[in-house]
Design a protein that fits this description.
With 505 residues, the chain is of the alpha+beta class. Helix content is 46%, strand content 7%.
């Protein structure tokens, strides 16, 4: 794995940059749609809906890199759903909708919509699922449950699942680019507002919807988008993701039953006007769609991704500190604007709140040298040494200069450990661990999956590595891909020893 760009620094040395999104006055919105939606530079530009539906119908060749990336993304999502299967949020949804204890897709007596809701909730229950920094979403926890819930009941579609996943990620990126970070910064849970669109697009490709049906599918999905960051740190947040996955499946089932919707849900007065800012039309006119690998960040730590650069800096600094719990040490963490938007808690009362607490995750990394699933139990968050260290941590967010809104991946995280007003050690984290710039490696992937399956085995039967691989292979018909020229490799060939050792041991 390429190591994240984390470096120890001398005092007062900090490099940072931010990418700005221009925000135009809302009064220009209609005018912008008229100009950018039809013409640019004297040439007609296809409407966003036209380009999106063309991409859903014919996305192009899915090469080996795209299909391998899809395999890893689906495997990662299935693993974190297994780990989250017995979490309170997942248990509540299973109880409400009559699911069995079996976490496999395709459960008898359970329809695809309810299964997508349950699996999507479980996939996000531990906040261990992947992230797309550009759109500020958790795309796979929405797209994968929707795809697998449908394909489990229609085996003939399984060879298209890998490419359909890649289609969903591409749409997630494009819609997120059009909305800009301002959408998230206003308090929307972007996974809940973008996720239904990207998952619906993936399903439209999966079942080969004709153009009018594809447009209706997107309209019906858009009609159900919603979710607020006020629910972060509660059981409702994972349910947001389940709602988004179920929304996409519901929209597909309705279209297949004859339901129709507006044929340009992104046009004036539509999705971008309601969820975006006045410049959304400009950005949408410039958005492209393409299959690509490396779009998402796969988490190494089971907590809000906004904490991960802080964790990376803390782990780097820890190597230079003999006694991180020493009471005369203070820790100051400077973070870019926007980082603290989802980190709502300073004194977490339970594991869900601790996942959105900067001080707790930094203290855990400094104090223990890692951040794992076991660090978010009731016993773990009450550890006296961690609590004492939290009180000596100050997180300072840069102000929002001149009203410019940057993304979560802007700037650097700068951590300083101070004794008697003298900086003892500094660490700067520029790149998110597990991001495309510092991707998860084979050993880390298997370490994460094994952690997930051990967690699942505490309340359910053990699952061997060979069984896990076989089950994922069944979900996506790995023997032949959607690309005529590529057969996706199974994870053992590329990502570890294909032994049958049990993760639950």
């Amino acid at each position: 794995m390429a190591r994240p760009e984390i470096r120890l620094a001398s005092p007062h040395v900090i490099a940072g940059a931010s990418r700005a999104n221009s925000v135009l006055r809302s009064g220009h919105r209609r005018h912008l749609w008229k100009e950018t939606g039809v013409e640019r530079g004297g040439c007609r530009v296809p409407e966003f809906i036209d380009r999106l539906c063309d991409f859903m119908r014919a996305p192009g060749h899915a090469d080996a890199a795209v299909l391998d990336d899809a395999w890893v993304g689906i495997s990662d999502t299935v693993a974190v759903a297994l780990a989250g299967w017995d979490e309170p949020s997942a248990r509540a949804v299973r109880q409400a909708y009559g699911s069995s204890e079996d976490p496999a897709f395709g459960q008898p007596g359970l329809d695809a919509e309810r299964e997508a809701l349950i699996q999507g909730t479980a996939a996000h229950a531990l906040d261990y699922d992947d992230v797309a920094l550009g759109s500020v979403t958790h795309p796979s926890a929405v797209i994968v449950p929707a795809l697998l819930a449908v394909a489990a009941r229609r085996p003939d579609l399984r060879p298209r699942v890998l490419a359909a996943y890649a289609v969903g990620l591409a749409v997630d990126a494009a819609v997120g680019e059009a909305l800009g970070f301002g959408h998230y910064d206003r308090g929307w849970h972007a996974t809940s507002t973008i996720g239904p669109i990207s998952a619906a697009a993936a399903l439209g490709y999966l079942v080969e919807l004709e153009p009018r049906g594809a447009r209706s599918l997107l309209a019906l999905a858009a009609a159900q988008c919603g979710g607020m960051q006020r629910n972060f740190g509660t059981l409702a947040k994972p349910a947001h993701v389940g709602f988004a996955a179920a929304t996409a499946v519901r929209a597909l089932l309705l279209v297949e039953a004859g339901m129709t919707g507006d044929q340009d849900i992104f046009g004036p007065g539509g999705y971008f006007d309601l969820y975006g800012d006045a410049a959304a039309a400009v950005r949408a006119a410039n958005c492209g769609f393409a299959l690509a690998a490396g779009r998402v960040s796969r988490k190494l730590y089971p907590c809000c991704y906004a904490t991960h650069r802080m964790i990376g800096a803390a782990l780097a600094a820890r190597d230079s500190i003999a006694h991180p719990f020493a009471p005369d040490l203070r820790i100051v963490v400077d973070v870019p604007y926007g980082t603290m938007r989802p980190l709502r808690f300073t004194d977490p009362r339970d594991g869900n709140e601790a996942k959105f607490c900067a001080a707790y995750t930094v203290a855990t990394a400094l104090g223990t040298g890692t951040v794992r699933l076991g660090d978010f139990t009731a016993e773990a968050i009450a550890r006296p040494a961690i609590r004492a260290l939290m009180k000596r941590i100050a997180v300072v967010e840069s102000p929002n200069g001149a009203g410019v809104v940057a993304g979560l991946d802007s700037g650097d995280v700068h951590l300083r450990i101070v004794r008697s007003n003298e900086t003892v050690v500094e660490a700067i984290s520029s790149v998110y661990p597990g991001s495309p710039l510092a991707p998860i490696g084979p050993e880390q992937l298997w370490d994460k999956i094994s952690d997930c399956l051990r967690t699942h085995a505490r309340t359910h039967r053990k699952i061997a590595r060979s069984e896990f691989e076989r089950k994922v292979g069944q979900y996506v018909a790995r023997c032949r891909s959607a690309s005529a020229n590529v057969s996706p490799r199974c994870i053992p060939d590329r990502y570890g020893d294909p032994s049958g050792d049990e993760f639950g041991t």
